[in-house]
Sequence to fold (60 residues):
Amino acid sequence: MRSAQQAFEVLSRPDWPVRGIEHAQAVDAALKVVDGHRSAVDARDALVRAAREAGTLVEN
Fold:
């Protein structure tokens, strides 16, 4: 992801595999970064947790 806006768009796609608590928190974090209320690090960490929850995280 290159931006919180892009993260929000990916998380909002209808084909996101699991919409659990981590997903909801990642969507919230991305929106708050876009609005200037949270850090990009917070959004990245939330996105990683959501991807892990969905079983889609590819770790190096």
